């Protein structure tokens, strides 16, 4: 074991501040990025867990919802022209007000009614499934019982994280756009931090009067006879469409969806700001800690100098030391972030830890540590062996 | 062709210094700490440099060993003519190859075991890890620390720490060994072990041992005693060492 590594391990308390500074800088950046990616995942969950092998949208659209994703209805038969396509269904969705039902004495004052938990009105996003077994619009993790429940007219499903804010639980009645619906199922794994969403069947959507009946429909969900050929078929569908549409494989769309999120200005500003703060804190604390730690061993370094070990070798020791501090800091950062993610998970908040983010942040932390090491090289000047003579 | 690794014969000059002058700035005035000092030390000799504090004895060995540049004078040492003409990198290399150092403080890395303290320096000298380990073990055995090879400084007594520092200096098999007050942080018994090890480095290894001290009891072991006061050598005597002298203050 090298001198640097043994020193770090033996005198770990001395280096703790630096390791913690790095870990917290890492947590700051990883946690923020994780929360944003998690929010994005809430939106893309529907894509990633969709049964569709290919999704056909308007060229230029990158996300199922919000963007100009819909296509003319006549594209449905056009997509069926490909011999490997077995099912095409347009995704449909809408939005509306959602209000829990509760009996509260109407003669009481507003404040008293609020205290008693009077119903609140929320705006929700509605998406649909087709309840025919095996339909392309049913997400892969929906159980047959769930589909069965949604097959009943005027039923909806909500995510478990939405129960509290929507003020309903399983079996409750609620008003959707003024019409009574029943919460027939609770979903797990579809949290959405921006806006709550509910799921209903296409038929229920039609019954509440919000289904697409005109010449335009939502994005087309396409099922293939052989899902492993999705990329090839998507390519062929794009040739066939001749620029009128764009066919995405499920994974490509999910990726595009996520990166589209990171093209948004505020996210970049927040993440960039957090990164800058993280770097400043990391460098400042790590630098000062390393300086202090080297000063604590300065006599030992000076005695090495007296024995003829050159300044360059001492500098290498310090740089190696800062490298190891960085490595430990990365481990601590990942551990901390993982803990926070686990905790957040129990609260229904998704923090996504992606390998690319871990590698980028890990590399960044090691660079911070090494920069701090380079900054603290100056104190080695104090390793004057002549000072040891008296 | 005079560069061989073997040590000079007993009695050959290891260091010759002429006209060393060192001044320190003190306020507006300069204090002359070394006033044209001539000095030499021979292989196989334990040369004792004695004097009261502030007499310039530590400054003298700093100038001799290439640690502190003197204003005037030259130091010829081993096969190097005028050490202070070399670049600082070359001076470091010279010390790495030929010099050992022992200080009053032990200056051991808290994280390293006795064995690792000694190995570290040897590895910087370019030895392979296996060779460094072998030589470090030998050196520590020579100072009587075989049972303490894997102890860290926190588990060693003051005397043991100084012996590790001596092993660290001796493992390099130096031709010149500088010791600055090596016994003043130790009790009589440990001090005696240390001075005997220095004696042996001179007699058996043929090193030129230059020992700065103000402890007159150490004179017993010296081949030569140089007294310095106010930057001037006032006395220089050869004597016959008594290797069996005792330092213990009792009896």
From TrEMBL, chain A:
A Pfam family this chain is assigned to: MacB_PCD
Bilayer-crossing regions: 15-39, 267-287, 321-345, 357-380
Cell compartment(s), UniProt: Cell membrane
Record domain MacB-like periplasmic core: where: 18-239
Membrane topology: Multi-pass membrane protein
Residues in ABC3 transporter permease C-terminal domain copies: 274-384
Key words of the record: Cell membrane, Membrane, Transmembrane, Transmembrane helix, Transport
Family annotation (InterPro entries): ABC-4/HrtB_transporter, ABC3_permease_C, DevC, MacB_PCD
Keyword Lipoprotein (UniProt): no
Main localization, broad class: membrane
Residues making up the signal peptide according to the UniProt record: none
GO cellular component term, pick one: plasma membrane
Key word Transmembrane helix present: yes
Name listed for the protein in its UniProt record: Permease
Record organism: Brevundimonas subvibrioides
């Amino acid at each position: 074991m090298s001198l640097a590594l043994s020193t770090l391990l033996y005198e770990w308390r001395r280096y703790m501040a630096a390791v913690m500074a790095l870990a917290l800088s890492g947590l700051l950046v990883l946690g923020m990025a994780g929360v944003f990616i998690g929010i994005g995942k809430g939106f893309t969950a529907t894509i990633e867990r969709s049964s569709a092998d290919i999704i056909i949208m308007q060229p230029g659209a990158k996300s199922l919802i919000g963007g100009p994703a819909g296509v003319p209805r006549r594209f449905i038969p056009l997509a069926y022209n490909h011999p490997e396509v077995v099912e095409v269904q347009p995704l449909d969705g809408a939005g509306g007000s959602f209000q829990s039902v509760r009996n509260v004495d109407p003669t009481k004052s507003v404040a008293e009614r609020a205290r008693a938990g009077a119903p609140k009105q929320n705006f929700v996003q509605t998406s649909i499934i087709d309840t025919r077994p095996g339909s392309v619009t049913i997400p892969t993790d929906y159980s047959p019982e769930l589909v069965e429940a949604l097959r009943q007219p005027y039923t909806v499903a909500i995510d478990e994280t939405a129960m509290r804010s929507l003020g309903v639980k399983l079996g409750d009645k609620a008003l959707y756009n003024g019409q009574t619906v029943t919460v027939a199922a609770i979903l797990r794994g579809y949290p959405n931090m921006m806006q709550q969403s509910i799921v209903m069947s296409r038929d229920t959507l039609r019954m509440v009067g919000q289904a697409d009946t005109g010449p335009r429909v939502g994005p087309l969900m396409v099922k293939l006879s052989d899902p492993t050929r999705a990329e090839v078929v998507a390519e062929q569908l794009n040739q066939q469409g001749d620029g009128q549409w764009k066919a995405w494989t499920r994974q490509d769309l999910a990726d595009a969806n996520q990166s589209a999120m990171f093209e948004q200005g505020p996210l970049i500003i927040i993440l960039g700001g957090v990164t800058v703060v993280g770097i400043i804190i990391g460098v400042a604390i790590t630098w000062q800690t390393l300086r202090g730690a080297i000063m604590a061993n300065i006599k030992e370094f000076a005695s090495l100098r007296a024995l003829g070990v050159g300044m360059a070798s001492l500098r290498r020791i310090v740089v190696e030391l800062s490298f190891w501090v960085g490595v430990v800091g990365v481990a601590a950062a990942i551990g901390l972030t993982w803990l926070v993610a686990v905790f957040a998970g129990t609260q229904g908040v998704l923090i996504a830890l992606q390998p690319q983010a871990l590698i980028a942040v890990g590399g960044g932390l090691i660079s911070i540590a090494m920069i701090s090491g380079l900054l603290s090289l100056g104190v080695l000047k104090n390793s004057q062996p002549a000072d040891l003579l008296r | 062709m005079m560069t061989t690794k073997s040590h000079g014969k007993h009695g050959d000059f290891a260091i010759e210094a002429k006209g060393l002058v060192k001044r320190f700035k003190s306020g507006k005035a300069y204090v002359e700490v070394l006033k044209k000092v001539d000095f030499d030390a021979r292989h196989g000799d334990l040369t004792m440099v004695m004097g009261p504090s502030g007499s310039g004895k530590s400054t003298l060995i700093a100038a001799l060993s290439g640690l502190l540049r003197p204003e005037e004078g030259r130091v010829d040492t081993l096969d190097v003519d005028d050490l202070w003409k070399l670049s600082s990198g070359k001076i470091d290399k010279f010390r790495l190859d030929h010099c050992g150092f022992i200080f009053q403080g032990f200056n051991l890395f808290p994280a390293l075991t006795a064995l690792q303290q000694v190995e570290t320096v040897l590895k910087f000298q370019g030895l392979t890890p296996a060779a460094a380990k072998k030589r470090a073990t030998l050196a520590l055995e020579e100072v009587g620390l075989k049972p303490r090879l894997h102890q860290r400084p926190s588990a060693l007594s003051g005397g043991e720490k100084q012996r590790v520092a001596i092993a660290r200096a001796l493992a390099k098999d130096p031709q010149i060994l500088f010791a600055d007050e090596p016994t003043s942080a130790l009790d009589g018994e440990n001090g005696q072990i240390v001075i005997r090890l220095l004696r042996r480095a001179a007699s058996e290894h043929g090193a030129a041992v230059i020992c700065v001290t103000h402890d007159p009891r150490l004179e017993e072991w010296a081949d030569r005693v140089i007294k310095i006061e106010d930057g001037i050598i006032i006395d220089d005597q050869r004597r016959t060492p008594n290797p069996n002298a005792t330092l213990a203050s009792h009896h």
